[in-house]
Amino acid sequence: MSVSTEGGAFAELRLDRVRRAFGEHVALRDLELTIKGGEFVALLGPSGCGKSTALNCLAGLLPLSGGQILMDGRRIDTLPPEKRGFGMVFQNYALFPHMSVRRNVAFGLAMRGVARAERIRRVDEVLRLVQLTEHADKFPAQLSGGQQQRVAIARAIVLEPWLVLMDEPLSNLDASLRLEMRNEIRRLHQSLGLTTVYVTHDQEEALALADRLVVLRDGVVQQVGSPEQVYAHPANRYVAGFMGYRNMIPATVSEVDGDLVAVDVGEVTLRGISRDRITENSAVAAIRPSDVSVADREGENTLRGQVEIVEYHGREQAVQARLPGGVPLHVRTRSRLAPGDSVLFHLPPERLLVFGEHS
Amino acid sequence: MRLVGSPGAWLVWGAVAFFLVNLFGLVLAVVVNSFSVQWFGTWWPNGLTTDYYASAWQDLGLLDVLVVTGQVALAVVALSVLIGVPTAYALARRNFPGKRLVTVLFLLPILLPPMTYGIPLATVLYKFDLAGSVAGVIVANLVPSVPFVVLTMTPFIEQIDPRIEAAARMCGARTLSVFTRVLAPLLVPGILAASILVLVRTVGMFELTFLTAGPGSQTLVVSLYESMFSAGIRAQQAVDAVAVIYTGSMLVLLVIALRFVNPTQLVTRLKEPAP
Amino acid sequence: MTAPTTAPPVSPPGERPPGIAHRLAERGIDRVLLLLVPGVVFVVVLFAYPVLYGLQLSFQPEEGGGPFANYERFFGDPYLRDTIWITLRLAVPAALFNVLASIPIAYRMRGAFRGKRVLTTILVVPITLGTVLTAQGLISYLGPAGWFNKILIGIGLTDEPVRLVNNYWGVLFSLIITGFPFAFLLTLSYLSGIDPTLEQAAATLGADRRRRFRHITFPLLAPGLAITFCLTFVLAFSVFPSAYLVGLPQGETRVISIVAYESAFRDTDYPLGSAIAMVMALVMLVVVGLVLVWRSTMYRGATGGKG
Q1: Which of B167, B173, B186 lies closest to A94 in CB terms?
Q2: What is the complex's ipTM, to 2 decimals?
Q3: Beta-carbon separation of A94 and B181 below 8 A
Q4: Nearest to residue B6, comparing CAs of A171, C255, C104?
Q5: Are C25 and A21 in contact (CB under 8 A)?
Q6: Does residue A90 sit at the B interface (CB-CB below 8 Å)?
Q7: How far is Cα of residue A186 from the mean position of the Cα atoms in its chain?
Q8: Class for domain C78-295, per CATH?
Q9: Same domain, B59 and B143
Q10: How far, CA to CA in Å, does B270 sit from each of B155, B265, B267, C305, C307?
């Protein structure tokens, strides 16, 4: 009987063409991913993109429809979840409501037959780590959301698992607590070095926490890369939209010169960057609202727009303007604008990304 | 919230009061009669006594009847929980082809009057020589009880988050441990509630017991009916004494039941704000 | 159980086509369904088999004749046939009364107030009485020499004692006493499941109390009432001991259960008894089916109850 448990380091975990279908619907299509020991990987995408399916497949809670999962070359996707030696933090925490905090955390150790004295030592240590020592004898229902979250994390990491799986662990917390717990998770990862796969729909969370991001859409990987890569060089229009390129201006390609592209928006020609060679004629020019600035005179890469909505955001204003073609332009600016103003906006060429319309 | 005030409210509470007063009079009439020496056509009997309880105890062999009732009720509760809870678990956790059919199969014994399936069931039990014995009475009473447990436990299990089971597995618990350490403790309140309701139903179940019981396997309701039916032989007071004993024991069971089951949450489970 | 850091078993890598077990699990069929086996075997053996056996038996009349002889006899003999109307005449008014009376009471009792639990308990107590004590109580309390008639005569409403037991009324009262608590509990339960903010919303839109009930609460409650009616109707339709004890078992309360029981066990004509039981089940299912068809035309989605 092989019980793979703690002792948690491996060189690499490879997902090889992992596929999961629910009837006709393919939730995860041929996922290829290699996770190195000690790494923090975030699976990012909106709900229904397959990220939770991927996590459940990794955990063994869902059987694969195809492909395999290999840990240092050994196949593990045929093992039931309790024999994989992974820890998991659930979105709604899934704490055992009839057990105290201490017994919740000790549960996995008891299941592995760890001796009592050792169990107590390790539970105490982990509870200290997540700062719950004084709540050890309370029941889950007596704890706040953040504390419950910490219990769920403690329960997963006390086993020092090969791999910690986190399924949107912060989505049930309010904004300030979410920031605090984000730091906490980062701190735990840095001090324990546990390999972690983290599922989220919040790109800010993924950028802040992960060493590597995997962006998913409809069960298909869109881009894998470091936070810097994904943030600065989104692979396609979809990833760009997810990474905050809120403005997507339809345009026609007029000139391609290596990475540099010129596109026409109405009468105006805009210059921008395209990482992939554009083959299509119609394209979109993408830019973040904060990269757009207000220009004082006509020049290269300027567009005129009519201000429609102004939101006050402290130091900045969030402005929605409308371009002559009827396309909205979102801008964050320190300039004080008012609805009805006709304004010239500057779209810096080094920040303007051009994607083929169907990329 | 305003309870009284409008004429409509007065009408409703008046009707409730009328119903309750008459109900109280009805129960009191039986209780008084069971303690009376003689009571014919007057407002109050001409003397009180407990003699008829003693005679009912001896004549009707109430001790035996109570023992049988207890045996039947406990066996029915234990068996229906044992058979019903796993079924409820499977129905709560899986969607499979034919699930509607299975659900209907478990609904019918509750929906149909006991008489309709009781007569064929008794016929079958007679065929297999089971009728007339305590075992036969237990089997007959299980027929509506198992579906009852299934139908009450299924929503109860549905509201236990399946991710709690997944979490136990991720902690390394195998199927047996998931069941004994995590699921069973969470199921206890539901099982307790269902058990008590089955107990009340079984003690009060007349038709099925009546159709399948023999001389040595009557429960309290049936022997009460028999004694009332042969009222010419026995004093009314003795019959009433049995009725009072029966109602007393049912009342105790119901009060216990209401401690565990909030009657307004039979259909929808919701958190009631603290009064 | 020791926990050595053993490697998981090695299996050759390669494409694994989804196996039959996987495809079945996809449709919800896996080992968990084995838990269904005891329950399903039980219902089939002890419920479905006897019912089918009875059905089969009902086509084999004791006294010869075609397979439908028992049914022909039942529907041909007014003494047997009329028991259906007798029973419906008791069950429909009793079930209607129980449901309709439950609505205003439950409506006033939803929400939390002091003593709610006590009042609920008192209203539920009649469940414990059982048919037999109820019958005994009705005879002593409503009988010619009972307190109720004494009071009626005392306050001058009548000169002669009113006959309230050993006839239709006795059985009807018994059905109301045993059926009302049940209907009330169900109604209260359905009513508690309706989000009170819906009515508040209607109030802010200008609906008065009556219109709030008519347009908001009642439509949301109606499907629950249909179910409540079905269940109380089933209880009332199967009336048996009280028809003997407080009714006129050879006359106006000769209900269908009585003839079914007497045919099967007094006359030991099991086939005829089974046939009558089948007719009984059929009438029941027709009434319940009609109510459920009516219910299916209503809104049955979430009623916004928390929980």
Answers
A1: B167
A2: 0.80
A3: no
A4: C104
A5: no
A6: yes
A7: 14
A8: mainly alpha
A9: yes
A10: 12, 7, 10, 7, 4
